């Protein structure tokens, strides 16, 4: 049985998991859907009983579709059409390629980390906040709006208010999956303009922090790392200044771990990277969840066996 790893050609994080799979003798086929239909070939037959048979073939090797035990959906690119096609045919070709390849893979009766459709649903921050609160996690008071009046009223009730992007920043000419980072920003009522009406905005009440925690979940394994920031920029959003961060593995409170596992089940996720603020009085406040978040640097900085936990889940035969 083979583990299928879907990711772009350069992905050091996926390499950590592949290393663990190879170490245990588990066969792996790594490929990028962006190579389809160019150098990646698919032959899939669907019988009248719904059975899917056939092969997925790269330039180096091929795998029987029936032998795929699990799929690790990391950071793949989207199918790319033949460069000779004009714009109209290119868009159609890429749409059909995605529907065909992704449709076949999604139909396979195997384990996923994570299914793309579950990632897409779980990425929506308003849904995350509601789901997190329902499972018992503390969440910040939040507002999603496209009216400046509502934003100003919300700011008036908050001692400090922040703005957070829900999808990342704009990157002209690039696909959404390549959107640049847009960091958390403290905003005052005076800074709010009618431009708020141009799109949806997520505003939250600022939560005072003693430190932050990145929680990485792989199956039933919960890895928590305390993040201490040593610069003003990093204290607002640690992603903006990695050079001034320090890390320390910590044990989450039992009730937090229990709620995190319940949240993962609620969102149909096997893997997730969750961010928390821990307040000066020790309260853990959920900020957000990335269903396909980066974790490699956390493992390298702390030695936590995250890749091993992901590989263990990929080797499991049950769904």
Produce a short descriptive summary.
The chain is α+β, with helices and mostly antiparallel strands and 319 residues long. It contains 9 helices and 16 strands. β15 and β16 form a beta hairpin.
Topology, element by element:
Blueprint: E1 2-6, H1 12-23, E2 28-31, E3 41-46, E4 52-57, E5 62-64, E6 68-73, H2 87-107, E7 111-113, H3 116-122, H4 125-134, E8 142-145, H5 148-157, E9 161-164, E10 185-187, E11 201-205, E12 211-218, E13 221-229, H6 232-236, E14 245-250, H7 254-266, E15 271-278, E16 284-290, H8 296-302, H9 306-315
Parallel strand pairs: 1-2, 1-6, 6-7
Antiparallel strand pairs: 3-4, 4-5, 8-11, 9-10, 9-11, 12-13, 12-15, 13-14, 15-16
CATH topology of the largest domain: D-amino Acid Aminotransferase, Chain A, domain 1
Q: Tell me the number of structural domains.
A: 3
Described by strand count, sense and barrel closure, the largest sheet is:
5 strands, antiparallel
CATH superfamily of the largest domain: ATP-grasp fold, B domain
Supply the helix-strand structural class. alpha+beta
Please tell me the overall pLDDT. 94
Low-confidence stretches: none
Radius of gyration: 21 Å
CATH class of the largest domain: Alpha Beta
**What CATH architecture of the largest domain do you see?**
2-Layer Sandwich
**Binned strand content:** 25-35%
* Distance, first to last CA: 14 Å
Instruction: Please write the string of helix (H) and strand (E) elements.
Output: EHEEEEEHEHHEHEEEEEHEHEEHH
How would you describe the shape?
Answer: globular
Number of strands: 16
What strand order characterises the main sheet? 14-13-12-15-16
| Helical proportion, percent range | 25-40%
Count of individual helical segments: 9
InterPro entries: ATP-grasp, GRASP_SAV_5884, MvdD-like_ATPgrasp
Organism: Nocardiopsis tropica
Pfam family, one: ATPgraspMvdD
Keywords: ATP-binding, Nucleotide-binding
């Amino acid at each position: 049985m083979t583990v299928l790893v879907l990711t772009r050609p350069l992905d050091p994080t996926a390499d950590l998991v592949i290393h663990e799979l190879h170490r245990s003798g588990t066969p792996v086929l790594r490929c990028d859907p962006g190579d389809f239909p160019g150098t990646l070939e698919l032959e899939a037959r669907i019988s009248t009983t719904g059975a899917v048979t056939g092969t997925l073939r790269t330039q180096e090797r091929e795998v029987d579709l029936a032998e795929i035990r699990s799929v690790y959906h990391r950071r793949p690119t989207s199918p790319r059409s033949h460069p000779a096609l004009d714009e109209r045919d290119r868009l159609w070709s890429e749409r059909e390629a995605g529907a065909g390849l992704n449709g076949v893979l999604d139909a396979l009766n195997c384990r996923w980390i994570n299914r793309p459709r579950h990632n897409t649903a779980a990425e929506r921050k308003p849904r995350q906040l509601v789901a997190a609160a329902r499972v018992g996690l503390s969440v910040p008071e939040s507002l999603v709006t496209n009216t400046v009046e509502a934003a100003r009223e919300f700011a008036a009730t908050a001692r400090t208010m922040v703005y957070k992007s829900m999808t990342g920043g704009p990157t002209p000419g690039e696909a959404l999956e390549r959107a640049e980072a847009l960091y958390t920003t403290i905003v005052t009522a005076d800074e709010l303009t009618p431009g708020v009406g141009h799109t949806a905005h997520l505003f939250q009440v600022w939560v005072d922090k003693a430190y932050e925690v990145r929680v990485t979940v792989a199956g039933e394994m919960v890895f928590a790392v305390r993040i201490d920031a040593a610069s003003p920029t990093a204290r607002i959003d640690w992603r903006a200044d990695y050079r001034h961060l320090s890390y320390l593995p910590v044990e989450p409170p039992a009730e937090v771990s229990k709620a995190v596992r319940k949240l993962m089940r609620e969102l149909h996720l096997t893997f997730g990277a969750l961010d928390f603020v821990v307040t000066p009085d020790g309260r853990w406040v959920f900020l957000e969840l990335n269903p396909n978040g980066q974790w490699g640097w956390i493992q390298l900085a702390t030695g936590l066996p995250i890749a091993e936990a992901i590989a263990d889940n990929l080797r499991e035969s049950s769904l």
